[in-house]
Structure prediction request, 370 residues.
Amino acid sequence: MTATKGLEGIVATTSSISSIVDGVLTYRGYDIDDLAEHASFEEVAYLLWFGKLPTADELKSLRKSLSDYAPIPSELIAQIKLYPKHISTMAALRSAVSALALYDEQADEMTEAANENKAVKLQAQLPTIVAAISRIRKGQEPVAPKEGASIAENFLYMMTGEEPSETAVKALDQALVLHADHELNASTFAARVTVATLSDIYSGVTSAIGALKGPLHGGANEAVMKMLDEIGTPDRLEAAIQEKLNNREKIMGFGHRVYKNGDPRAKHLQKMSKELGEMNNDTRLYEMSVKIEEIVTGQKGLKPNVDFYSASVYTQLKIDQELFTPIFAISRVSGWTAHILEQLADNRIIRPRAEYTGPTDQKYVSIDLR
Ligand code: ACO
Prediction:
């Protein structure tokens, strides 16, 4: 038995949800470029769950279910108010989603219909939870979801209590489409491993949130923004990045296990970042990001991933840095739950082996002789 560090190149399952072939990402066979250009996030969620694009009636019915399920239990809001203020927003989200299961009588019902229904519920409630966490941390009361609004519009509305601009809704909706699924990434794998024991969907999504939180995965978008903030002004940029490279530090938002010639999602976020900068008459963040890309790609050959330009996009949408990774979760819960449904439809427990490298032939020594 020989271990493969990080399971690189290991094909751990079959899946018909998304694929990455020769650097092209598809959801259910649709190129991400096509979907980012034309589809709404709700259409994409439907596609991931049910394997086809919805008809107008199916989409209407999904939007209604998402809207009906969007409010969260008052007991959960009361709990969130008790969370310590120093914890990260992702730690709060992980705890809140775990607690959400306690208020769903269907939580342990394992039929396909019950799990599909819970997938829609989780998709509807994650944005409400994230917005509530954000407001409570600022000492504000949560804003109840608006009936009939899309996920993107509702999230921006619940975050501020104000009607968002059409531009902001469109930009966030497109970002959600781009983050919705990504084959067997770390958090999706965590979700599948958890439910493959026949544990419930809430446990699967809680595991996934825990995996997404790390800076090598979804946490990178917040780390990118921290880096841009630390650098501060363009005149300091070259020296700061050079110092990181000389110290062999990882530059957040660059590199990818699967893409070596660039992440197909990054170009959409780069375009969005440029357009938002031009609209706001402030292209500083965009220009700094482009400069960092030039240096890192030039010297290391590493290309930006989905997290790099999303940092400047979200900042320009006036979204707090601590919400960047939770927004990733708001989108990716569609993919996580689609994978959970797929796993459960043809389940086998996921139990790989480890190559043992510890000592052998040890003999027990009684405690008084140690
Ligand atoms: N900055 C500097 N060097 C890097 C970077 C980076 N961002 N990424 C990879 N490298 C270097 C490594 O140091 C390593 O060099 P070495 O062989 O000289 O030691 C080589 O490239 C290979 O990198 P690994 O870390 O082994 O690649 P792996 O496939 O295991 O990791 C990962 C992929 C985690 C994305 C990595 O590129 C990374 O840490 N990037 C920064 C964090 C990040 O942006 N994560 C988000 C990824 S996208 C997503 O999850 C949504």
About this structure: The chain has 16 helices and three strands. Residues 6, 216-218, 220, 250-257, 300, 302, 305-307 surround acetyl coenzyme *A (CB under 6 Å).
